[in-house]
Amino acid sequence: MATSNLTSELPPLPAYTLRPLPPLISGLADCYVQMALPVIGYWTVSLIFHVIDVYDLFPKQRLHTPAEVLKRNHVSRWEVFRDVVVQQLVQTAVMLCMAYLDEVPMHGKADYDVAWYAQKLRLAQRAIPYLLATVGLDSSALAASMSASQPMFAGAVSGGRYPGLLQQATIEGEQTLVPAFAPWELAVARVLYYYAIPAVQFFLGFIVLDIWEYFWHRAMHMNKWLYVNIHSRHHRLYVPYAYGSLYNHPVEGFILDTLGTGVGYLILGMTMRQSFFYFTFCTIKTVDDHSGYHFAWDPLQFIFPNNAAYHDIHHQSWGIKTNFSQPFFTFWDRVGGTMYMGDVAERYERARRTAQQKLEQEQDNNTVAESAKNTMASVPELDATARSQPISAPRSSRKKASSISQSSAGNLKGLTNKVNESLHGRRASVLGMDSSH
User: Are residues 212 and 282 both part of a single domain?
Assistant: First the structure.
């Protein structure tokens, strides 16, 4: 049980009793919701973008063509899926450890906290008379003139003095009258407590994550060992797609993603239920940044300057040493001199043409190879047909029969040679195209 603090002329803070917080979902502890929501958010948004990909619903908003996805990436979709699942298992294990070490979430202090903010508002009002005096206004006269029509405004102008606002309170076992909060003070305090302070925490959490990601990400590019042994795996995706956003080496996934958001959560003192939104939002933002689509109406891409188009440059061979900032702002790229400043339109167009040419050449090679295979399969049939032809010759002359037999054998040999020449010619063509490819 915590007792109230009494300060002269200030409304007292109420007493409170802490109790274990009931789970948000009956029968399921909040820590399990904390683990599940980022994973659910990741695959839900990834599935939406995957459907858009498969059915090519927004071709004009694509940053890369389907041909580029097929020809430029150096890792299969199955390998990407597998490694993402591994990272999410590591992430879940870390969150489980955090839940085990964290204190049990409690509640029952909200009214006390709201009153604490209301007290600070009452104290801040004491500066109003001095501020009015700097512009030549008499706060006492102004308050007196408005006390009848606007008593709350008059109380604020007079420095937070509300003589008519009283409440009963038990102090040392006795009932007594003490100052009370104005309704507007409590209303503003509730807005601060329930909305403004969490919004500031989230915003600062984004900044903490950006700082963490930028300097670790930059280090993994500037340090050769870190890049070759750890970060290069993520860059097998030259053409990113949504569910490949967490395709990383497990060490990188732990350092950049799991620890990055965890540090923001701990430094800013977020509650577990605040972390539901913080972790899930950061995860969805990362998926959106790797989606491969630039949507003007996407709120994540509209609000934040660091978006899919910005980060995609970093995945290209010509932009790999730039645009390290992730996932919200571009401030650190500007400060660190790592923002890509060149024109990207021609580079993207050249990559599209090259990928399309490779795809068409591969299709042509497959067509020629299939044709050669079919021709080879037809040789035994031609040979069997030739062998089954009956040779009719009179037996009256041994010399004539021998001549006819030699003629038939010659015809068969000629047919076989002709087919073989055709086959060899086609094979040479196939090999020639393969070698050029």
Answer: yes
- Please report whether residue 131 resides in a domain: no
- Cα–chain-centroid distance for residue 319? 20
- Indicate if 60 and 202 belong to the same structural domain: yes
Asked if 351 and 321 sit in the same domain, the reply is: no
pLDDT tens-digit series, residues 271-328: 999 999 999 999 999 999 999 999 999 999 999 999 999 999 999 999 999 999 999 9
Q: Cα–Cα distance between 372 and 120 in angstroms, integer?
A: 86
Instruction: List CB contacts of 179: < 8 A, sequence separation 6 or more.
Output: 9, 10, 11, 162, 165, 166, 167
Closest CA to 34 of 288, 236, 274: 274
Which domain does 204 fall in, by range?
Answer: 30-105+193-336
Residues 293 and 396 in one domain: no
| Residue-wise pLDDT tens digits, 61-75 | 999 999 998 899 999
Helix 30-54 crosses helix 77-101 at what angle (to 10 degrees)? 160
Rounded to whole angstroms, how far apart are CA atoms 414 and 82?
57
Q: Which residues contact 242 (CB under 8 A, 6 or more apart)?
A: 45, 46, 48, 49, 50, 53, 287, 288, 290, 291, 292
Is 231 domain-assigned? yes
**Does a structural domain hold residue 182?**
no
Neighbours of 397 (CB within 10 A): 11
Angle at 297 between CA 291 and CA 298, to 5 degrees: 35
The pTM assigned to this predicted structure is 0.81
Instruction: Give me 69's structure tokens.
Output: 């996805």
Find the length of the chain.
Answer: 437
Do both 263 and 408 map to the same domain?
Answer: no
Same domain (yes/no): 209, 252: yes
pLDDT at 415: 39
Distance CA 85, CA 134 (A): 63
- Which residue bears the tokens 């689509």? 293
What average pLDDT does the segment 392-396 reach?
Answer: 49
Same domain? For 207 and 83 the reply is yes
CA distance 71 to 68: 5
Quick one: pLDDT at residue 403? Answer: 46
Helix, strand, or coil here: 393?
Answer: coil
Residue 7, pLDDT above cutoff 80: no
Say how far apart CA 140 and CA 142 lie, in whole Å: 5
- From the CB of residue 68, how many other CB atoms can be counted at a distance below 10 Å? 22
* Domain edge (last residue) among 302, 336, 370: 336
Would you say the C-alpha torsion 242, 308, 270, 181 has a positive or negative sign?
Answer: negative
In a domain, 6, yes or no: no
